[in-house]
Structure formats: structure tokens, C-alpha cells
Specification:
Helices cover 40% and strands 26% of the residues. It has 257 residues and is of the alpha+beta class.
Length: 257
């Protein structure tokens, strides 16, 4: 009886040893497989000296493209390429149609005034928009900014904060307008200025995310924040102005030849 017990224990021990050996072998094979995989990945990540990155680019997929240079906006030129003229003309058409810009003419029809579709036709508590004038081959821009308040600031300066970058727009005495709105007992104070000296400010506004405007007078201030629609409208009008200026310059250069 004791002999049978010993034989059984010996058999069970051998089985356990065999099982442990098989498990150890499987672990070793798994470790080797992982090591081979990591080596292959490292080889793909680090091309050999003197070779190009064609193999690596292929691994990224055919739809993946990384340009090796930045595309810059060409400066206006009197010798515009026909392809660029066509692209600008198409973009201008899309801007005018897509924004449904309003075009108004003066009484004698000599000047066209171009407004973005979002430009309010009535007074708002906070106005800030660019509109354009066009006559013959000349186009120019103007800024109308103002607010409605019970007691006006008598502003002499507009401070514009675009994502933390601060700009100043000086107001001359003759540029400040006030209109008393007796039906609500408040005053509409506003400026209507040419934008020639404020192009950088307005272009930055069009690319901004958070834009704050402050009308500042002697000891008084009035603040408001531009809406997303107001920012986008400034961007569209500034782009229309830039395209029209470049196309007009190109047309004049061809006329003079």
C-alpha cells in the first residue's frame, strides 16, 4: 500500500514538472515574439543614413501628406498670372454671393456702398463693422463703431483687445458723432472712420477669437465684446477689400500698357 502511494506521488510530481516546463517554454516563445516585433518597429522608425523616407511615408498611408514648405500668400503684383487672377475672381464671387453683401448706390449712382449681409440696418446697442466704397477702379474701406448709452462717454480713443493684443484707435474731434434718441432717452455715440491707418488692427480682428472694444473718454469708459458674427463679417469685408485692390491694380497695369 505504501508503495502504491509513493508511485502515485512520483507520477503527480513528474506531471507538475512537465506542466511547468511547457508553461516556461510558452513564456519564452512569447517574449521572443515581442522582441522581434519591437525590433521591426524600431527599424521602420529609424531609416538608415543615406536613404530617403519613402518606406516610412508608405507606412503612413497614401492619404497622409506632410508639406515640406509653407504656402504663402503672394504679394500684389502688376504682372499677375492668369491663374491667380482667375482664382481671385472666383473667390470674390463666392464672397459676394455667400455673404449676400448689400450693395447700395448714392443718389447719383457715382459710388457703390458694399455691406456684409450681417450688417444691421437699424441701430444696435453695440455696432462695429467695416463697409466698403467703390467708384470706378477705386475701392476703399470705412469703419463704423458705436454704442447706445444713457450718458455718453465723449470718447477720444477706442481700445481694441484681440486675444490679449491691444490696439488703439485715436478719435479726432470731428470724427465723433452723437445722436440723441428721444424715444428711449439714450444717446447713440459713434465714429465713422477711414480704415487706412487701421488695416493691421482690422485684419487681426477678423482672425481673432475674443475681441473686446472699449470707448474711452475723460474719466469714463464703455465696454462691449464683439459677437462671432461681427468678427466674421470684419474678416469677409477685409478679404473682399484685399482681393478688389489686387484685381484693380492688375487691371490698371494692363490698361496702361
Amino acid at each position: 500500500m505504501d508503495e502504491e502511494v509513493k508511485n502515485k506521488e512520483g507520477t503527480d510530481g513528474r506531471k507538475r514538472l512537465i506542466t511547468l516546463a511547457v508553461m516556461l517554454l510558452l513564456l519564452i516563445l512569447s517574449a521572443v515574439s515581442v522582441l522581434v516585433f519591437l525590433l521591426n518597429v524600431e527599424i521602420k522608425k529609424t531609416p538608415e543614413a543615406g536613404t530617403d523616407d519613402a518606406a516610412l511615408s508608405a507606412d503612413l498611408g497614401k492619404d497622409y501628406y506632410v508639406p515640406s514648405f509653407e504656402i504663402e500668400e503672394p504679394l500684389p503684383s502688376p504682372d499677375m498670372l492668369p491663374q491667380r487672377r482667375m482664382l481671385l475672381t472666383d473667390e470674390l464671387s463666392l464672397l459676394m454671393e455667400g455673404t449676400a453683401s448689400r450693395v447700395e448706390e448714392t443718389g447719383d449712382g457715382s459710388v457703390q456702398w458694399i455691406y456684409d449681409r450681417t450688417t444691421p440696418s437699424a441701430l444696435m446697442t453695440a455696432n462695429f463693422y467695416v463697409y466698403l466704397g467703390a467708384k470706378g477702379g477705386t475701392i476703399w474701406g470705412r469703419l463704423l463703431a458705436g454704442y447706445i448709452r444713457e450718458i455718453p462717454v465723449f470718447a477720444n480713443r477706442i481700445i481694441v483687445d484681440v486675444d490679449g493684443v491691444v490696439y488703439g484707435i485715436d478719435i479726432q474731434y470731428n470724427d465723433l458723432n452723437q445722436r440723441y434718441l428721444d424715444y428711449i432717452g439714450e444717446t447713440h455715440e459713434f465714429v465713422d472712420l477711414p480704415i487706412d491707418n487701421h488695416l493691421d488692427t482690422l485684419r487681426h480682428i477678423g482672425n481673432g477669437q475674443n475681441v473686446f472694444v472699449c470707448f474711452r473718454g475723460e474719466g469714463q469708459e464703455h465696454h462691449f465684446q464683439l459677437t462671432r458674427a461681427q468678427i466674421d463679417a470684419v474678416a469677409r469685408m477685409m478679404r473682399i477689400l484685399r482681393i478688389r485692390e489686387e484685381l484693380d491694380l492688375d487691371e490698371k497695369s494692363h490698361t496702361q500698357r
